[in-house]
């Protein structure tokens, strides 16, 4: 149950000045008319100066005016409290819309994963934290044979395959890791606080998620992944450098096998 405080009523009056003034003028008008009627009928005579019948009439008039005034005040307060409720409802809607906008700004609309903007921000923070001796891994993941699925079965099927792949990749990542879709059939994973062996194990889990076929629309689809890994800070101290080195490693993985994992190797880098 919603409760209202005097401050809420005051805010409603301040935030809704026009209807508050209108209701205030109406209230003053009613009170003025009531006062004039009281004067007209000598309602303010001292009771000692009134006869018994006059006292009864004056008492009835006083009660009527009191009830009228009370009703006007109640109506004024009720209308202001209604404004408070409307303000609260608008605030709830506004907060919800702001959350949705923030979510849309940081999430991939198809898969619900983080998008490139969110990844870039997280990557910059990870690089900054590596100055304290922490090591992170950046995985760049490109699906193999996905274009063929799109070309043969259409983009609707391709989108559902991407959604299924995103779910599988998410199951292979750790809860603390950030999985993102960069666009098309390219994904990225930022894994925190690990060594090279742990990074390799995560990469192998990701590849293993694609061992089984993906069922969409009653048909089976198969795809693999080429994964390039760059360690932070060993393989880069800026976001662009880390992404570039992971990209070089990914293309080396593509040249080795249909589904493969490769770490960035400065000695073999040509880009």
Could you explain how this protein is built, in words?
This protein has helices at residues 6-15, 17-40, 52-106, 116-129, 146-153, 155-172, 196-208, 239-256; strands at 136-144, 178-183, 186-191, 214-216, 219-221, 224-232, 260-263. With 271 residues, the chain is α+β, with helices and mostly antiparallel strands. It folds into two domains: 6-105; 116-263, Alpha-Beta Plaits, CATH 3.30.70.270. Strands 2-3-1-6-7 form a five-stranded mixed β-sheet, with helices on both faces. The longest helix has 55 residues, at 52-106.
What brief labels describe this structure?
Alpha-Beta Plaits, alpha+beta, two-stranded antiparallel sheet, 271 residues
Structural class: alpha+beta
Q: Quote the distance from N terminus to C terminus.
A: 64 Å
- Give the helix tally: 8
Classify the fold: give the CATH topology of the largest domain.
Answer: Alpha-Beta Plaits
Counted up, domains total 2
CATH homologous superfamily (4th level) name of the largest domain: Reverse transcriptase/Diguanylate cyclase domain
Strand content: 5-15%
C-alpha geometry: elongated
Order of helices and strands: HHHHEHHEEHEEEHE
Physical arrangement of strands within the biggest beta sheet: 2-3-1-6-7
Estimated helix fraction: 55-70%
Summarize the structure.
This protein is of the alpha+beta class and 271 residues long.
Topology, please?
Elements: H1 6-15, H2 17-40, H3 52-106, H4 116-129, E1 136-144, H5 146-153, H6 155-172, E2 178-183, E3 186-191, H7 196-208, E4 214-216, E5 219-221, E6 224-232, H8 239-256, E7 260-263
Parallel strand pairs: 6-7
Antiparallel strand pairs: 1-3, 1-6, 2-3, 4-5
């Amino acid at each position: 149950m919603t409760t209202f405080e005097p401050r809420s009523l005051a805010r409603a009056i301040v935030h809704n000045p026009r209807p508050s003034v209108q209701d205030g003028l109406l209230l003053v008008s009613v009170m003025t008319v009531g006062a004039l009627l009281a004067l007209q009928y000598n309602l303010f005579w001292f009771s000692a100066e009134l006869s018994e019948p006059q006292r009864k009439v004056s008492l009835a008039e006083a009660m009527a005016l009191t009830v009228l005034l009370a009703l006007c005040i109640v109506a004024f307060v009720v209308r202001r409290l209604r404004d408070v409720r409307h303000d609260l409802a608008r605030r709830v809607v506004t907060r919800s819309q702001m959350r949705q906008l923030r979510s849309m700004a940081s999430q991939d609309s198809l898969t619900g994963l983080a998008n490139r903007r969110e990844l870039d921000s997280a990557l910059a923070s990870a690089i900054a934290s590596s100055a304290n001796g922490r090591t992170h891994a950046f995985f760049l993941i490109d699906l193999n044979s996905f274009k063929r699925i799109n070309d043969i079965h259409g983009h609707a099927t391709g989108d559902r395959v991407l959604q299924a792949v995103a779910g599988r990749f998410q199951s292979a990542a750790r809860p603390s890791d950030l999985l993102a879709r960069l666009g098309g059939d390219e994904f990225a994973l930022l894994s925190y606080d690990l060594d090279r062996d742990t990074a390799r194990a995560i990469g192998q889990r990701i590849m293993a998620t694609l061992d089984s076929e993906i069922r969409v629309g009653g048909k089976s689809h198969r795809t693999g992944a080429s994964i390039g890994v760059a360690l932070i800070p060993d393989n880069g101290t800026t976001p662009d450098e880390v992404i570039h080195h992971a990209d070089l490693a990914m293309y080396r993985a593509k040249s080795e096998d249909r589904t493969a994992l490769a770490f960035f190797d400065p000695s073999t880098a040509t880009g």
